[in-house]
Amino acid sequence: MTSQSTGSPRSGSGPAISAVGLPAHYILLAFRWAVSNSRFLYLLAAVLVGGSFLISFHTDAWHWFQRSGALLVSIGALLSTRRAMGLMLDSLINGSDLAQQVQGEQIVTSEAGELRTCVCGFLLVAMGTFIWAYGDLLGCLFPSQLSCLV
C-alpha cells in the first residue's frame, strides 16, 4: 500500500492541493490577476457575448446567447467589486488578516479609473441580466427563425 496525498497542506507549499492538481495558491494568484486586470475582464465579456451570439446566429439555437448573459452578470459583478475582491484575495494569498489590511489600505473611491470600472461593471450586470432574461427571443428578429411565429 502506497501513501498518497490526502489533500492536506504540505509544509511550505501554501494552501491545500486543489482538484486540478495545482496548489490552490497558484489558482488564487491567477484569479487575483484576472480580478485586478479590468482590460482582461472587458475582453472576456466581449468574446463570450460575441462568440455566443455568432454561435446562436449560425445554429439558430439562441439559448447559447441567453446563457452568455449569466456569464456577463458574473463579470460585471467582478468589475464592480474588484477592489474588495482584490483585498480579500491578497489576504488569502499572503495569509494576512483582512481587517488589518483594510485598515492599512487607504481606499479612495473618487479615482476616475476605479469609478469608471465600477460603473462599467454595473452596466455589464444590467446588460447581462437583460440578455439572460430575453436573449433567446432575439432569434425571433431574424427571418430564419420561423418557430417564433408559432
Folded structure, characterized:
With 150 residues, this protein is mostly helical. The protein has one domain (24-138). Helices cover 64% and strands 0% of the residues. It contains 6 helices and no strands. α3 (63-80) packs antiparallel against α6.
Task: Name its key features.
single chain, 6 helices, 0% strand, elongated
What would you say about this model in short?
With 150 residues, the chain is mainly alpha-helical. It has one domain (24-138).
**Low-confidence spans:** 1-18
Number of separate strands: 0
Helicity level, as a percent range?
55-70%
Mean of the pLDDT scores?
74
Distance between the termini: 64 Å
SSE blueprint and pairings:
Blueprint: H1 24-36, H2 38-59, H3 63-80, H4 82-94, H5 98-104, H6 112-134
